[in-house]
Amino acid sequence: MVELKTDTSIDEMREAGRVVAQALAAVREKAAAGVSLLELDSVAHGVLRAADASSPFLGYRPSFAPTPFPAVLCASVNDAIVHGIPDGYRLRDGDLLSADFGAQLGGWAGDSAISFTVGTARPEDVRLIETAERALAAGIAAAVVGNRIGDIAHAIGKVCRAEGYGIPDGFGGHGIGRKMHEDPPVPNEGRAGRGMRLKHGMVIAIEPMVIAGGMDDYYAAPDGWTLRTSDGTRAAHAEHTVAITDAGPRILTAL
């Protein structure tokens, strides 16, 4: 069931989204060659504490997971697509990092992700990240009252496929509100004009993921959480929490 949020509730979700944006900005600023993923998780945790917010990631255990997620930040490096667990790995010059973060504040959740390179950027990584961001922008532009979920999915997929990139099969965005994951699912590829009609008050997380090698396949790492590209090529991830309103899409996780 999809819960339609009131305008007041959307304003409250914006406050949770602001914490998410601040944490991702802090993570990006801290990330440099020699910095460990655990240090980045600590930075994100500090933003939560300062805002008196909690993490919907920490301790989260969906049906596929062998263990609860042990961190507040997902840190996925290079061929890791999503759900990377922060560990002692120290970033290297040229690494591609996708950082995914959520916050719970006042009973509402926010969820967002960014991808960026550490130090010297490879041109192919710049193109990959820019494509994920353009796909996100296209998905947001389609998130208007009267459109359908399929219009968002089609807009995202069209951008990604035009560049020859893969889209991880079965993974996409989701509704969000009191919980981090709610209905409806928001695929990253689909047919325009299909699916649930978008209404004022719906709030969704739109999150394109792209694989440089063009394949859609992935596998789960031994930790049971990290998803990696099957061909070993790099991946990028971009995400915003977006409210669908009569005035147009409202991004709740922007700075």
Automatic annotation (TrEMBL):
Cofactor binding, note field: Binds 2 divalent metal cations per subunit. Has a high-affinity and a low affinity metal-binding site. The true nature of the physiological cofactor is under debate. The enzyme is active with cobalt, zinc, manganese or divalent iron ions. Most likely, methionine aminopeptidases function as mononuclear Fe(2+)-metalloproteases under physiological conditions, and the catalytically relevant metal-binding site has been assigned to the histidine-containing high-affinity site.
Cofactors required: Co(2+); Zn(2+); Mn(2+); Fe(2+)
Domain Peptidase M24 residue range list: 12-246
Binding positions (substrate): 83, 181
Reactions performed catalytically: Release of N-terminal amino acids, preferentially methionine, from peptides and arylamides
This protein's name: Methionine aminopeptidase
Record keywords, A-Z: Aminopeptidase, Hydrolase, Metal-binding, Protease
InterPro entries associated with the record: Creatinase/aminopeptidase-like, Pept_M24, Pept_M24_MAP, Pept_M24A_MAP1
CDD domains: MetAP1 (cd01086)
Species in which this protein is naturally found: Streptomyces aureus
EC number assigned by the record: 3.4.11.18
A GO molecular function held by the record: initiator methionyl aminopeptidase activity
Pfam families, sorted: Peptidase_M24
Matches recorded under Gene3D superfamilies: Creatinase/methionine aminopeptidase superfamily (3.90.230.10)
HAMAP family: MetAP_1 (MF_01974)
